[in-house]
Amino acid sequence: MDLTLRVLGVVRSPLTDPATAPRFETENAPRAEVVLDPAYRTAAKSLEAGQEVLLFTWFHLADRDCQEVHPRREGNRPLTGVFSTRSPDRPNPIGLHQVRIAAIDGDVLTIEALEAVDGTPVIDIKPLADRHGR
What homologous superfamily is domain 9-63+94-127 in, according to CATH? Predict the structure, then answer.
């Protein structure tokens, strides 16, 4: 079986430390950019400013051997299996972010709020389905 993961772009963000980064885009996550690889320009041509999308990232700094964490990094909470948390530390550290595109300038998507740290690889972008299932 041939399994290939293609990096479509990279996050540019003022966040640099995963330990202090917010866990949700709604927790004061900063505005960030997704700089797309120009090879995927055609794939992105239907994206629009104001559009809500699911952004999939690869948390390249995550601990891939981690199976349990204290939820929300609170040591007083019991350890929980990572499949029940939003921790970036997990066997396959895929980040899922429901975000809004604030602006598009060439190959750069400005995202209103994103909790991923600078340099995080972007592996997919999917628009939220509208009422017509598109």
Answer: YaeB-like (2.40.30.70)
